[in-house]
Amino acid sequence: MQHDAFVAGVQHGGLTSEFEVKIFLCYLLHHIELPLTFDQLSEILLQTSLVNYFEVTNAFSELKKSGHLLINKDQTLGITEKGIRTAVEFEKSIPKSVREKCLAATREYLQRRKRMEEIEINYHSVSDGYLFHVVMKDYGSDLVDMKLFLPTREDCVNVQERMYENPTAVYKGLLAVMMGSKDGIIEYLAEQP
Question: Residue 6: its pLDDT value, please?
Answer without folding.
Answer: 47
